[in-house]
Amino acid sequence: MRPGELNTETRPMNISILKQPSAWLPVAISFTGLTMVLVHFAVSGIVHETDEGTLAHLWQLLMAGQVPIVAFFAFKWLPKDPRRAIPVLGLQAASAAASFASVYFLTA
Q: What's this model's pTM, rounded to 2 decimal places?
């Protein structure tokens, strides 16, 4: 082994995959969207508007913006370590589903 090379045999495997920005960032984005929806509901109540407001557009951008990050995470980590990547993908999907569910149940 040359100086400066990383020996993959001695690299610790207990480093959490959730420390990767591509793992935790979609979860944070989804919970930010969920918080935005719940705060809007708490302040304004359920209001059926003819035009979507700025908050709705921001929420849509947040939800769409996390798709490339999740795809990057899946393409990078599923081939390397599927046993640890699949639960993280499930967490990402569950947090996005919680955000979508809040919009659905508060606007339906």
A: 0.79
